Amino acid sequence: MFESFKKAVLAVAVFAFMAGVSEASSIVIKGSTTVLPVAQGTLEAFMKAHPGVQMSLSGGGSGEGIKALIDKTTDIATSSRDIKPSEIELAKSRGVNPVEHVVAFDAIIPVVHPSNKVSNLTTDQLSQIYQGKITNWKEVGGEDLKIVVISRDSSSGTFESWDHFVMKKAKVTPRAQMLASNGALVTAVAKNRFAIAYLGIGYLNKSVKPLQVNGVTASVQTAMSKEYPLSRELYMYTNGEPTGDVAKYLAFVKSAQGQAVVAKEGFVPLMDVKKTGKK
Questions:
Q1: What predicted TM-score, i.e. pTM, was given to this entire model?
Q2: Total tally of structural domains belonging to the chain
Q3: HSE value, Cβ hemisphere, 13 Å, CA-based, for 67
Q4: Boundaries of domain holding 71
Q5: Are residues 115 and 216 both part of a single domain?
């Protein structure tokens, strides 16, 4: 179900879908690279049913999407983190009223090279690894190999979620490699048997090995129940309550049909789509 990620460059790429109608409605979506495949999949399905709508989609990070919403250069900001109080304050000072829409659930999963013998880490061990206090895999039950720490860059919502769940405001070691997208992290870990990184669940594939956290395996079920300790919501933000085609698109994303697309893209739907079925 993650095959679509192998066929698209999702980091900071721009997808434009033109309807060819002279007076078509237009929707601009910007933001999180984690939410990008959810937005892309639902956008494509929505446009099949609404061929008179022009839509553009780009990544760049949660912070960039929220900044675009504040600057009034996007209709929808996608984000893998909550909007910050400081961002809300800035938005309101510019006449923008951010309204939150939860569109999916996600699990942030620490991943290593498939050859790594480690299968489970606690949140404390993860924190110490990312702070640079644990530097060798033998300290957590692995081989005598130096740990290569790989992280998302600080503009990423996933980076901020990792800080919330794992780091607790502690600083990431300056030796960490900071990369701009989930896809870049997958590639880096797949090529480095010393490495560790963290990904949104939709980017998981066989080239990397997922780790349990506190003895819990990340799955659709454990993410929905929040049993998995690094579970989170994925968001779309609008300026005020959406209207027109923006409202129709968001209603589609939250519908059983839209949530089936979320599940197909490898993320966790808001509902049990198998029981609910497609409408």
A1: 0.82
A2: 2
A3: 10
A4: 3-105+233-276
A5: yes
Task: Identify whether residues 15 and 93 lie together within a single domain.
Answer: yes
Q: How many CA atoms lie within 13 A of 156 on its CB side?
A: 26
186 shares a domain with 150: yes
- How far, in Å, are 17, 65, 255, 277 from residue 258 at the CA level? 18, 21, 5, 11
**pLDDT tens-place string over residues 206-239:** 999 999 999 999 998 999 899 999 999 999 999 9
Q: How far apart are CA 176 and CA 160, in angstroms?
A: 15
C-alpha–C-alpha distance, residues 56 and 51, integer Å: 14
User: Is the CB of residue 20 less than 8 Å from the CB of residue 66?
Assistant: no
Q: Alpha carbon of 116 to those of 111, 150, 177, 190: distances in Å? A: 10, 15, 19, 11
Report residue 119 as tokens: 């299968």
Q: What is the dihedral of CA 148, 154, 158, 161, to 10 degrees?
A: 100
Q: How far apart are CA 74 and CA 45, in angstroms?
A: 20
Q: How far is CA 154 from the centre of its chain?
A: 14
d(CA 182, CA 151): 9
Bridge partner list, 57 = 15, 29
Q: Are residues 90 and 23 in the same domain?
A: yes
Distance (Å, whole) CA 179 – CA 197: 10
3-state class (DSSP) for residue 25: strand
Owner of token pair 């790429």: 13
237: three-class secondary structure by DSSP: strand
Question: In the numeric block, which tokens belong to residue 226?
Answer: 């929040």
Q: Per-residue pLDDT tens for 80-105?
A: 999 999 999 999 999 999 999 999 99
63 and 129, same structural domain?
Answer: no
